[in-house]
Design a protein that fits this description.
The chain is of the alpha/beta class. The chain has a single domain, classed as 5'-nuclease (Rossmann fold, 3-Layer(aba) Sandwich), CATH 3.40.50. The chain is built from 7 helices and 5 strands, in the order E-H-H-E-H-H-E-H-E-H-H-E. Helix 3 packs antiparallel against helix 4. The two termini are 26 Å apart.
């Protein structure tokens, strides 16, 4: 008698924009495992319109060296691997609906990623941003796990 295989659920993660750039723009060797895990559907990136708007804005930066077509290809490739999360009623860039005492970032552009991780109950927020990493202890009190990429293995 055969043994039935159980399909493991993908790991639900919020990826900060700098991680998405490493995967899809700069092709950082340190991001290869994560990129492969997304393509193999072992990692499910969680996104929202606010975080996608941030990615679109950053893709236009000169250091990305992408024309309009290349920017759209990067965005399409990322969105194809991601899940758009339904946020609570009233959620917007100006109203992140964070609970009292939730840690705040120096850079307001970083806060939607923390809010997404909180509201989507993500298994983690992966970032290289030092300001976000400094908030990890405080964020954990709200069940938001903030990790640097080197702290996570994406192979199974």
């Amino acid at each position: 008698m055969g043994v039935a295989k159980v399909n493991a659920q993908p790991t639900r993660l919020v990826l900060d924009t700098n991680i998405v750039l490493d995967c899809f723009v700069f092709h950082d060797p340190a991001a290869r495992e994560l990129t492969a895990a997304m393509e193999a559907r072992r990692v499910q990136p969680l996104v929202h319109d606010v975080t996608l708007d941030e990615l679109q804005r950053v893709l236009a930066y000169p250091q990305c060296r992408l024309d309009n077509s290349e920017r759209q290809q990067v965005l399409d490739r990322y969105v194809a691997s991601a899940t758009l999360v339904q946020m609570p009623e009233g959620f917007a860039r100006e109203a992140l609906l964070l609970p009292t005492g939730f840690p705040r970032c120096r850079d307001p552009d970083d806060e939607p990623f923390l809010a997404l991780a909180l509201h989507a109950r993500a298994e983690g927020l992966i970032t290289k941003d030092r300001d976000i990493l400094k908030l990890r202890r405080k964020a954990r009190r709200f069940s938001v796990i903030v990790l640097a990429p080197q702290e996570v293995s994406f192979t199974r």
